[in-house]
Amino acid sequence: MTTATAFNYCIALQPICDGTMTHVADELLYRAHGKATAADVHDHQTATARVCNIAFYETGLANLVGSRKIFVNIPEEWILDPKLLPPAPEQIVIEVLETVAGTPEIISALQRIRALGYRIALDDFVPAPDNNPLLDVADIVKIDVSQPIDHAWLERLKASGTQLLAEKVEDLDTFNRMRDLGFQLFQGYFYARPETLRLTARTRTNNHPALMRLLNEMRQPDADYKQLENLIAQDAQLTYVLLKYANSALLHHRGEILTIGQALNALGLRRVQAIAISILLADNGPASRLLLTQALVRATMCELLAERHSQSPEVAFTVGLISMMGPLLDESLEALISKLPISQDAEDAILRRHHTLGRILTSVEQFELGQIDDWPSGKVDEFNRLWLESRVWTTQTLTGLENTI
Questions:
Q1: Interior angle at CA 69, CA 63 and CA 74, nearest 5
Q2: Residues sharing a CB contact under 8 Å with residue 248, sequence separation 6 or more, in sequence order
């Protein structure tokens, strides 16, 4: 009997934005745990293969990230054998790990990869004699800005036309300083910080109270469609976006949707709820928009898990969503919840992590952070599937909204 080695890993996407905080790319991350360690090259290849198979072949880039670029860490063995690389070179940026030396063999392989249409990024790059040759074939250099920076070297890189990506940008001050130094791309958690949200916020132009009432009404198991129509009609921007979206080529309705009621029936409550949230956050600035995808993915994962644990999917979606609405709206969760007539169980789940819903929310957050060391492989596989399903739904829901809100 052959015994298969179990690999615990989770998939994640970390946003990459430009100098205006516009979401322009994502990095596909996997975190190997348990028997899979970073020091074991075979395990590294196995995890990469599994993640790429799910992301590129089973799910597809359009469903995963829309039209944005996607950065993928590629092991040295795949660099030397380009037929293993994922498809769609025009959308993929190959990340060369910091452990890869710039040998003549690697340089030649990267030149072939670039000729196929892929862009090359150097991950966590620090200049040294054994890796400096890599700069000749790099389109993007990723630099850990939490470490001291050689400014003279940085100026030479800029002069060569290489695009600079700042990694580990943890606050708005660092973002601004790195942008002033000439970095063009940024990756980190600075967009999740409350001060970032405050300083990048715009004045809301939509009917905020009506949207909040709408979100609350839609979570009801027996939602009154007539009441929903009345609330939607109070916000001209939401009405316009819903009708335009319902008639978009994405849904193949060809201009047949003429009323709010028809749009509700065509889109379904969950999609309308996501669109209303997008409208709510659209004027909060780019930092809120960067967090929106994560919020909807979390809410959808909670919803799907609730169905497996005999809990209300509608309430679970709201619990997942509200758990991120504090930073999204620059308000404490306690203050936000006080304005919404949610159930005591939902409040306990969000603020105190009580009951089954609270445990579901905690598990989703642990998965987001890669804190799965002690999880059985079956649970990890389930959460990976749920994350992918949730990400696909979120991407499809938000596709087409960018130019209308």
A1: 100
A2: 400
pLDDT for residue 3: 30
pLDDT at 256 over 60: yes
Three-class HEC string of 24-66? EEEEEEEEEECCCCCCCHHHHHHHHHHHHHHHHHHHCHHHHHC
Torsion sign over Cα 119, 122, 124, 125: negative
Distance of CA 48 to the CA centre of its chain: 19
Strands 8-18 and 23-33: antiparallel
pLDDT digits (tens, 9 = 90+) for 204-221: 555 566 666 777 777 676
Q: CA quadruple 99, 103, 105, 109: dihedral positive or negative?
A: positive
The token duo for 142 is 């990723």
Rg (CA), the chain: 23
Summarize the confidence of residues 362-389 as an average pLDDT.
91
pLDDT confidence of residue 25: 96
Q: How many CB atoms lie within 10 A of CB 369?
A: 11
What per-residue confidence (pLDDT) applies to 292? 82
Domains annotated on the chain, with CATH: 8-191 (3.20.20.450), 208-398 (1.10.3210.10)
**Beta strand 185-186 pairing with 8-18:** antiparallel
Is residue 5 over pLDDT 50? no
Token pair for 33: 């745990």
- Which residues does 79 contact at the CB level (< 8 Å), separation at least 6? 94, 96, 100, 106, 109, 110, 113
User: Does residue 21 contact residue 393 with C-beta atoms inside 8 Å?
Assistant: no
Instruction: Write the CA distances from 387 to 116, 309, 310, 316, integer angstroms.
Output: 31, 17, 19, 15
Whether the pLDDT of residue 6 is over 50: the answer is: no
Contact 327, 295 (CB under 8 A): no
Which helix (H) or strand (E) segment holds residue 394: the answer is helix 377-398
- Smallest CA-to-CA distance from 241 within 215, 275, 271 is with 275
Query: Which residue has 């997942």 as its token pair?
Result: 320
**What span, in angstroms and rounded, lies between the C-alpha atoms of 226 and 231?**
9
